[in-house]
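Example A, followed by Example B.
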Amino acid sequence: MALSLRTRVVFGVAAALALAAGIGFALFDRAAADTTALLALSLPDTAGQSQPLAQWRGKVLVVNFWATWCAPCREEMPEFVRAQEQYGPKGLQVVGIAVDNADKVQQFAKELGLNYPALIGGFGAMDLSKKLGNELVALPFTLVLDREGKVAYTHLGPVTPDKFRGVISKLL
């Protein structure tokens, strides 16, 4: 089901207002978010295979909540592809959790050449993102876990390449 133009505009305006209000990113207390639920989660990939997030324990884990209909999400994803290619061998793992259906995600992943897992979270993923610090429940929302599984960084809105690389380089 495609979202109406009005719905997409509302999402865009909400994201723009959040950024204008200075909520573009938030470093937060590593104890503030309990990642136990996230790391215990198992979600299907685009092929329908269940993928437990716990399989990436011990890595710097970038979890990006996104959707195919989200223009800012589409803007930042090529940077995640480049980072996965460059830093993957050093212990980085990017994982996308799509608030979307598998068919759309699979098609988009092919178009973009995703080199990291795209998991299907559906609209339930938004509840999880809220528990992890996404107070506005907007997209894109990215969090970075350190090698111990603690939240090191969160960001609402598209992550700039310089900021993103600065955060992950300190953790690798």
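Example B, a separate protein, is given below in the same form.
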Amino acid sequence: MGGEVHIDSVSVEETWARLHRDRDSVLIDVRTSAEWAYVGLPDLSSIGKGPVQVEWLTFPGDRLNPAFVDRLSTALAAIGANKDSELLFICRSGGRSLKAAQAMAAAGYIRCRNVAEGFEGPLDPDHHRGRIGGWKAKGLPWVQG
């Protein structure tokens, strides 16, 4: 799962545009089940899609999910995605999603992208997320898990 694989970063706005424009593109949410439940999920229903959800780190404990590549490969095959599909990886703020994208690129998926700033974006001066960057702050559709 080499960290040397270069992955392009894409803004949340460009991610939304690509998901809308390319029917084969896939948004992959690699946050934990707790984040999905309590923070919310990108809502892609208006474009006839939904995010694929596979934890990069397991909850509780924040340990690397050893079955990540296998589970995601299976989930992608189930929706008709393949190694040529554009895969857009999102997490809270862009760190885990980058590692997940690198892992899938190393597994042969050739169009892996990292969603810059993620779902909640960076911390603001008051140490809160979701206000100055990321999917939620940019006003893209989302639902409470």
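On Example B: The longest strand covers residues 86-90.
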